[in-house]
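Troubleshooting log. The previous structure file for this entry was overwritten by mistake, so regenerating from the original sequence record. Sequence copied from the archived sheet and checked twice against the printout by T.R.
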Amino acid sequence: MGSKKAGKATGGLWTPANIVTTVRVVLVPLWLLVAELLCPAGLNGATIDAGMLAAFVFFVILSLTDKLDGYLARSRGEVTTFGKFLDPIADKLVVIVALCFLLEHGMSSSWVLLVIVAREFLVSGLRMVIASKGVVVAASNLGKWKTATTMVSISGLLLCMALPAGQALDVLNLISQVLLFAAVVLTAWSGVDYFLKGWKYLVEAD
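Regenerated output below.
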């Protein structure tokens, strides 16, 4: 059923990977502040908006740090309990804060935020129940595809806010919205997949 007993983490608390993860958490509200301050009152004028372009670049860098801390932890053999706790929180903060910003500026739907937040609450609750039984349900590739698609679609929509009106903007916006829809589908699908794998641990007697 794709499950395994939890293994012992290795490494100290302030490993390079954990430092990167912690910095990523701290940078999330800073990104939001920068994006709000630099977002123009009227989007898509006649020229590229430098402020929103900076917010887009900031978000891309923030997104890529997820790969960096994962690489550092695995390559150095420093997978820690603290990292396992904080890394998914950092991922969720990056996505949810960015989607709230896009929703505020009419670039996303409230349904997108609802599905993603509801999935995270449900799966996190299931993880806690399963972990209390000393079991870890192996993550599937659906989660990786979900995260990648979500990050790319958000990046595309942020870039749309920086571009001037025109055909290029219309094409990029369409592609980004389609990718965001795909991300929502993958989010729901990965949640269902996780529940199917962990259901027997949820209903079994203590």
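The first strand starts at residue 3 and ends at 5. Archived copy saved in two places this time.
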